[in-house]
Amino acid sequence: MSFKKNLSYKAFSKSKFKSIKHSTYFEVYDELFSKYRNKKITFVEIGILGGGSLFMWRNFFGSKARIIGIDINPDAKKWTKYGFEVFIGDQSDINFWKTFKKKVGMVDIILDDGGHRYVDQITSIECILSNIKHNGLIVVEDTHTSYMDGFGDKKYSLINYIKHKIDKINHKSHKLKSVNFKENIWSIKVYESIIAIFIKKKQKQTISKPITNKGIDDNAKDFRVEKNKQNKSFKKIFEKVKNYFR
Description:
By secondary structure, this protein is an alpha/beta fold. It has helices at 7-14, 25-33, 52-61, 94-104, 118-128, 158-170, 223-229, 231-244, and strands spanning 42-46, 66-71, 85-88, 107-112, 132-141, 185-191, 194-199.
């Protein structure tokens, strides 16, 4: 079991209270979060249940980190006596997020392990996006619920929402002027059951435009143009491409 070598797994194992995670998550945690360890950051987890994950993240990030939990269960307030901040509220409630952002301020990482309904996941992303620091992260767990019944209308699943965000990111290209992209989303990474959204403030993002290194131009022939003229072979290629979507 290679995941037992991960630092996040070791932090998970040392937690004095119960926490439930998938075995595939620890490698992802290490990849995404290791650069934040032993730094003064604000980390927020939605959905803390038995409190064990709060201690896990304290073990992993170190004593400099500000660890905040969000839960709909009022009893979760008991974890404040261990030095954690806990907010009670519904992650699908816009007004809750307004209050939360005023009290907490800017956040480095938010990890959504809450209700897993699409309305929960998408509302949380949309509401917290403006309060994620430059080079911060929004991470959503258990995204396999987008393929399961009981979490909302699958037409409006988190995965379909993410596909829409991917379209927006690609429309930042100078070649595509149809979308006015104003969000702070820099990139999106997909893992098994986890989505990671990387944040860069839009004013700090590189503007897409063509550049040249001013090297010698040998007037190389662009064979893509010739290839596109070969309509007979294009039909076969197109049939092959369609197979990839099945």
